[in-house]
TrEMBL record, chains A, B, C, D, E, F:
One of its GO terms (molecular function) is protein-N-terminal-alanine acetyltransferase activity. Keywords: Transferase. It comes from Natrinema ejinorense. This is GNAT family N-acetyltransferase. The keyword Transferase applies. One of its GO terms (cellular component) is cytoplasm. SUPFAM superfamilies: Acyl-CoA N-acyltransferases (Nat).
Amino acid sequence: MPGPVFLDGDRLTLRPIEEADLEFLQTQINDSRIWGPLGRSKPLNREQEREFFENRICGDDSVDLLIVADSTPVGTIGLFEFDWESQKAELGYWVAPEHHDQGYGTEATERVVRYAFDQLGLHRIAARVFEFNEPSKQLLETIGFSREGVHRDAEFVDGEYRDVYWYGLLEEEWRARSE
Amino acid sequence: MPGPVFLDGDRLTLRPIEEADLEFLQTQINDSRIWGPLGRSKPLNREQEREFFENRICGDDSVDLLIVADSTPVGTIGLFEFDWESQKAELGYWVAPEHHDQGYGTEATERVVRYAFDQLGLHRIAARVFEFNEPSKQLLETIGFSREGVHRDAEFVDGEYRDVYWYGLLEEEWRARSE
Amino acid sequence: MPGPVFLDGDRLTLRPIEEADLEFLQTQINDSRIWGPLGRSKPLNREQEREFFENRICGDDSVDLLIVADSTPVGTIGLFEFDWESQKAELGYWVAPEHHDQGYGTEATERVVRYAFDQLGLHRIAARVFEFNEPSKQLLETIGFSREGVHRDAEFVDGEYRDVYWYGLLEEEWRARSE
Amino acid sequence: MPGPVFLDGDRLTLRPIEEADLEFLQTQINDSRIWGPLGRSKPLNREQEREFFENRICGDDSVDLLIVADSTPVGTIGLFEFDWESQKAELGYWVAPEHHDQGYGTEATERVVRYAFDQLGLHRIAARVFEFNEPSKQLLETIGFSREGVHRDAEFVDGEYRDVYWYGLLEEEWRARSE
Amino acid sequence: MPGPVFLDGDRLTLRPIEEADLEFLQTQINDSRIWGPLGRSKPLNREQEREFFENRICGDDSVDLLIVADSTPVGTIGLFEFDWESQKAELGYWVAPEHHDQGYGTEATERVVRYAFDQLGLHRIAARVFEFNEPSKQLLETIGFSREGVHRDAEFVDGEYRDVYWYGLLEEEWRARSE
Amino acid sequence: MPGPVFLDGDRLTLRPIEEADLEFLQTQINDSRIWGPLGRSKPLNREQEREFFENRICGDDSVDLLIVADSTPVGTIGLFEFDWESQKAELGYWVAPEHHDQGYGTEATERVVRYAFDQLGLHRIAARVFEFNEPSKQLLETIGFSREGVHRDAEFVDGEYRDVYWYGLLEEEWRARSE
C-alpha cells in the first residue's frame, strides 16, 4: 500500500519509510550485493532491523526516504551526519539489484540534492563510494559531485583493504549547473 | 517461511535467526544429542530460549546464522567471543541429528570461514571440540584447522571429565589452501 | 501440545516446564493431597503461580522438569538448592494423585538422579520426606538413598508437628549400584 | 563504643550489630580459622562485607547479635531460616580465635536459646556443625541439643568432603532441662 | 599531582585524563585559539565539561591521554572513531597556546602513532586539519601522513567556509619509515 | 594500611582488595611492563579503575586477592572464569616490576593453587601466558602446570601477532606432587 508522497520525481516518488517496509528493507540489507558496497558486514534479523528503524528512521537526526517506482519500493535514500553550524550533510542510497540500470538512483539523488539545497538550505553535500563501485561514481559525477579525496585502505571488503572515494557538491556549483 | 538470505552456499543458505525459529531452536537445544557435545547441561523452556534470543542473537557481540537446506532449518552456526584488537573470534555450530551425515556442517563452516576472513577481516578463528566428537574433529581438519591444544578434563559429560581439543585457523593458511 | 524432550525414560519423558503447563501446575499445587506432603500450606492463584513460574522455573538456580506419560503431564521433578562448591543439590518431586501407583515417581527420580551425577557432575543429592509419606520413603530407598537423619517436629501438618526424614545419596554409592 | 544492650548475660552482653562493627566482622570473616568451620570459602572486601551487613543484618529475616565481653566484641550469634508456620529457626555463631576457651560461645548460645523459646515462641531450633568441630559439638550437647542426623559429604573443606552433623532442640526438652 | 604514566616519551609523558584535570581542560577548550582550529564553537561550563569527561573520557570507545611535560599538562591527544572491522581510527590533539613551538605535538603524535600500530594493531590512522592550520599540516607530514583529500567548505570559521584537509597514514608506510 | 588477611604464606599475605588499593592498582595497570604481558592495551583513569573494582572485585564471579610482602602491596592474584559444573577456573596474576625476581609470584600462586583445590574443591586450573613471558612460563611449570596448547597468533603485542600458551593443572597431579 503506497504511503504519503513526500517528494515527487518524473518516474519516482520518495516517501517516508514505514514499519510495513521493514520486510523489504531487511531482505535487501541482508543481500551481499547491497551490504558489501555499503561497507556493512553483519546479518540483521527482524528485531535488529526494527531497532535500526526506531533509532535511525524514526529519529530526528536524519532524513530517510523510500524510493518507489510504480508503487514498488526499489531502494532508499537519505541525508545524515548533519552539521547544521556548517550547513552540511552526507548523502547515501541503495537500489535493489533487480532494479538496477533503470536510472532510479540518479533520479532519486537529483531530487534529494535539490531538496537539500532548496528546502534544507545546505551549503555542502558529501558522499562516500568504494573505489570499485563504478555505477555510483558515475552517478555522482553525472549530478556534479567532484572527487575530493581518496581515503586509502579505509574498509576491508572481499578479502582486501579498499579505498574509499569522497565526493562533495557545493550549493553554488549545483545552482550554476541547474541553469 | 523463508527469511532473507545473508550468505549463499551450494546447497545451503545461511540467514539471520528470527523469532519464528525459536520453536526449532528450543526443540534442538533440549535434545541430549545436541546439548551434550555443546557442553550444555540444563533444560531451556520457551521463556529462557527467548531470553537467549534477545540477549545473544539480537545483540551486537556475535554473528549468528540459521543453516537452511531446501527451505528447511537444519542447524545454526555463529562467530562469537570477538576480540577485535587481535582480530580473532571463536566459531561454533550444531546440526540437528536427523540432518547429520549430509555434509551440511562442513559446507556451512566453509562459507562462514570465508565470510570471517573476507568480510570481517579476521586474522584467526578458533573452535573447541570434545575429544569424543569425531565428526566435528574431521570437519575442522578438513577445512584446514590445526589442533593447537588439548585442555585436559575441561568438561564433565556423561559421568566423566572429558578433554576439549582447541583448533585454530589463520588467515594466511586458509588463503593458501583456497588457491 | 508436547514440548521438546529433555530427558528420555522408558515410559516417561521429562521436558522443560512451559507457560502452557501453568493450568495443570496450579490445579495440582492447590490440591491438599499434594501441598500437604510438600510442606506447603497456602493457596496460589494464577498470578501467584505465574510469578513462581517466572522466578523459579525460568530462573537459573534450579532444574525443573515436567513428567509426561503418553503425552499427559503427570507431575514435576527438580533439583534445587545447588551448592556448586560442594557439588550438591536437593531433589524434589510430586505426582498428581490420579497417576499414583504407576511407578512414575520412581522412574522420573532414577532418570534425574542419573542426569545429576552424569551430566551435572554432582557428588551428593539430598531429599526430604515426611515421616508419614511411606511411598516417598520407599521410592528413595529403592533408588539407593540412605536415611541420614530425623529432624524432629520440623513441620506442622494436620494439627501436629511432624518429623522430617532427610535422605542422602552419594555419587560413588550410586555408581556401585548401577553396575 | 558500646551500643545498646539487647540481651544480658552473666559475663556477656548481646547487642545489635552496627556499621562501626564492620571492621571487626570483616577481619574475622577473612580469618581461615573462622571461615573454614562456617563452610565459607571466599574473601570479602569492605564493600562486600557492607553489602552483607545491609542485606542480612539490616534485613528483617534474621536476628543477629554481637557478643560482647567487657566492652570487647568477641563474636556474633544469630537465628535465621525462620519458618514461622512451623515455628522453627536455625542457630549459628562464631567466636574470634583469641577469645576461645572462655565459654563465651556456650553462654551466648544459652542466652539466645532462652530468648528464642521465651520471646520468639519457637518450638524448635536446629544447628549445623562440621564433624571435626569438637568444641561446637560439645557446646550444643551441653545445652541439650540432640544429634538428629549426619549429612554425609555435605561440604568440601581442606581437600576432603566432610560430614555435617545436624542438631535439634525442642521447646519442651529445653524447658524440662531448665527446671 | 602526577597520575600514572601510560606511555613514555623523551620529554613527555602521556597519562590517563583524570577528574583533577577538568579545570585545565575546561580552561583550554574555551580558549578560541583552541576551539577554532578544532572546529568547535560553543562555550562549555564545568558541568558540560564533566559530562564530556564521563561520556567520552571514561567511556570505552576512545583512547584519550593528557600530554605532560615536566609534570605540567600541556595538551591532550586521542584516538577515536574506531572502526575495528577495518582496523582504523582517527587521531586528534591540541596543545595549549602557551606551550606551542616546543615540538610537544609532534612528540606526542609520534608516540601515539607507534602505540596505535604496535599495541592496537591498527592498519590506518586518519586526521583532519583546517587549511589554515600550517603547524598541524607540517606536524602530520613530518610524521609521514599523506594528504588524501580536500573537503571544500566543510566548516564555517571566522566568517567564512573553510576547507578541511584529510590525512592518512598506513601501517606499512609507517614501519618502512621507522626502519 | 593493612587489611584483614585471607590466606597466609611464608613471606606473603594475601588479602581482599579494598578501595584504598585503587591508587596502587591504577598506577600498575597503566604501566606498559604490566599491561603488555596481560594482553591489555588501553589507559585506565581513576573512574574506569573504580568501575572495574565495583564490577569485578566486589562481584561474586571471581576471587581476587592483593599480594602483600612486609605490609607492602606487590601485586594481585585471582581466580576467574569459574565453571562450577566442571569445577574449573582460570588463574591470573601480576607483580609490580620493582618487586620482580623475589619469588613473590611463585609463592602467591602456590598458595592460591592450594586454596583452589582444598577449599574451592576445583578439579582443574588453567592459565594463559604469552610465548615471550619466560618468567611466567617457568613459574607455572615449577608449580606443576603442563603446557596444553599453543594458540597461534592469539594476541597483537608490540607490532606482531603473538602465540599464547595455555597451561593446565589437575587436582590429582597437584596432590601427587605435594606428597
